[in-house]
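Students often ask why we bother predicting the structure of a whole assembly rather than each chain alone. The short answer is interfaces. A chain on its own may look different once its partners are present, and contacts between molecules only exist in the joint model. In this exercise we take two input lines together and write out one structure for the complete complex. Read the inputs first and try to guess which parts will touch.
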Amino acid sequence: MSTDPYGLRPGEVAVELPQEFDAGLYFIGRIRTPWTTREACPRNARESDAVCTIEVDARYAAALKEVETCSHLLVLYWMDKARRDLVLQAPRHYDTQRGTFALRSPVRLNPIATSVVRLVRVDGTRLSVVGLDCLDSTPLLDIKPYFASTDAVPAATVGWHAAGKT
Amino acid sequence: MSTDPYGLRPGEVAVELPQEFDAGLYFIGRIRTPWTTREACPRNARESDAVCTIEVDARYAAALKEVETCSHLLVLYWMDKARRDLVLQAPRHYDTQRGTFALRSPVRLNPIATSVVRLVRVDGTRLSVVGLDCLDSTPLLDIKPYFASTDAVPAATVGWHAAGKT
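Now the answer. The structure tokens for the assembled complex follow.
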């Protein structure tokens, strides 16, 4: 339990957010996963082989044309369960504070998550995929084809992160 | 020039968008690039070695702590110059219609772009990076560390796309 009245852990820093939004998003579907609490979610998407389902709203069905030819997709979704105003965070499983832009935490100024998934099957507006780690019923924002030529950088490193961990 | 009064090319299909947005975004900085017209932008981010600059608003400076330890970043930005309602598109340089979710076109229901960039240098709130292809002054939405362990899938394929092209 935090002892800070604002729910901050030691070392965490919040900023005052702007009064107004600059742009708006549509939720275009929902993601169905086996996980209904934050604690139940995998720590990252490679920790689970669970097949999850992306349900695209019927209104946008035509936008799926030729998606079935993709082996992998980039899925964007909205993580609206966490506060948005932290710039420095002290994740429980790490021993220090880090900037939001150096973390993949759901606590972000714009809580848009990006996950690379393997496409298993397309049934109408339902996509079966492997590689998600989000809560059941998470709002969908976008689906993009994953191009290895521009999206895959196997040699990339994150210096603060211990080698071999994610 | 299109002959359709709504600016659609043959084969393109638009849908009626919802009356209201479901969530809001903050523009948290700007991206500076050498490209001021759509035609001048590289066709994709690997076509140019230009060093671009990500200017993060001073309000969020602390969120950059330890970003400098990352070799690569995932940059999310807002492509607000294009219509949002197309579900089937007929890109000029391809010979057929495809669904929006099978394309990386800026025309999207939620026009959030994701680019993997190589981090060259951090000077305060300015990041010098290689790998962007957007217009100068594009609004910034988020910066994330790129983890090869979850983000890199070198074997991924896009079936509709000719081998070796991007």
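Check your guess against this: Strands of chain B lie at 13-14, 23-25, 29-32, 51-56, 72-78, 86-89, 98-99, 112-123, 126-130, 138-145.
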